[in-house]
Amino acid sequence: MLRTVPILLLGLLLGFVLFPLLNKWTEQPSSQASLDSTSTNDIDQSRQNAIVKAIQKVSPSVVSINTARLSDPFFDPFSEIRKIPGIGSGFVIQPDGYILTNSHVVDGAQDITITFSDGRRFNVLEIFIDRQLDLAVIHIDADDLPLLEFGDSDQVIIGEWAIALGNPFGLRFEDNKPTVTVGVISALNRVVRPEEDERAYKDMIQTDASINPGNSGGPLVNSLGQVIGVNTFILSQGGGLGMGFAVPIKRALEAAHQLIDQGSRDFWTGLDIHSVNTHIARTLGLSTARGALITVIEPLSPGESAGLLQGDVIVMANNQRVDSADDLIGAFRNAVVGDTIALKILRGRVFRGRGGGFFDTNLILEQDPRSEE
């Protein structure tokens, strides 16, 4: 009997020691679940980053553009004329049915269908084209379209996030939502001439966000969800990786509003130009580091008819001083077919054997032969 008392006391002592531990072990799953829930919430919040929000903001205004062009039986006169499908992208610039894209997406197309991410489809009422800038405005019969926020492309920063949205490779999914690629702004004010294109693209935004076939005409967006450019083309050795280029949105909107107000710009000059800098002036023996340098003159073009030569510098247009390529583009902004543009030309000393120095000539704008195709 006496021996059982110590045993009882020992049991009570162990109970006091072990009970809190057992209680803690019992409560641990509940507290762990609370910790797991908190961690999950933190992860969910981190997933809703600036890029995700920007995409959600922009996507409703992005469209897929499906086209059809007639085949040319020239190389096989016994073949039937077929409709060749084409693909591209665009985005709303006015809620009353105006959509911006690249001219190469729609130029020469017979059938064009516009599809929004919610599945709505529209046929085209009219198209306005500016081949010089590779831009086009499509007008559809629609109202109250979702409008984007436009950024200031003059304030783009090298290294900031760049988001490209569009319809790559013509992929068609049941939800019709645009595909997204992300990169950074790699460079600004690039002048590029793709090998397959006769145009020289000037002052382009360069990005490493993939701009695949079908992305052309879609928006390039910053991390605030603001459109900063129009995706136009990619330079690549193959596949979807390479350097992408976009027309700055400031220039694109100026051209788009002019197209809406005045219609397509169907004239051509046959000239490619580049702003003169100190290095160019020194190389060509020019007395000034300003003006628009003529880098290419197409055969049988208005430029050739005006007596212009590769290496000439345009310093005045219609009595307005030309300090850069942009100044010259501005001088042609309201021009139409048949207009005569008075030019003052500076020919450097390396061309003196061909009549160097200053001289005047008239450039008569002709119908762009591509508009007749």
CATH secondary-structure class of the largest domain:
Mainly Beta
The counted number of beta strands is 21
Q: List unreliable stretches of 5+ residues.
A: none
Q: Please describe the biggest sheet, giving its number of strands, its sense, and whether it closes into a barrel.
A: 6 strands, antiparallel, barrel
Write structural notes for this entry.
The structure is a single chain. The radius of gyration is 31 Å and the shape is globular. The strands form 4 sheets. Strands 1-2-3-6-5-4 form a 6-stranded antiparallel β-barrel. With 373 residues, the protein is of the alpha+beta class. The mean pLDDT is 80. It has 4 domains: 4-47; 57-140, Trypsin-like serine proteases (Thrombin, subunit H), CATH 2.40.10; 150-262, Trypsin-like serine proteases (Thrombin, subunit H), CATH 2.40.10; 267-372, Pdz3 Domain. The protein has helices spanning 4-47, 50-58, 103-106, 249-262, 278-284, 302-305, 325-331; strands spanning 62-70, 83-94, 98-101, 111-116, 121-130, 135-140, 149-150, 161-166, 179-192, 201-207, 219-221, 226-235, 243-248, 267-268, 271-275, 292-297, 313-317, 320-321, 340-347, 357-364, 366-367. It has 7 helices and 21 strands.
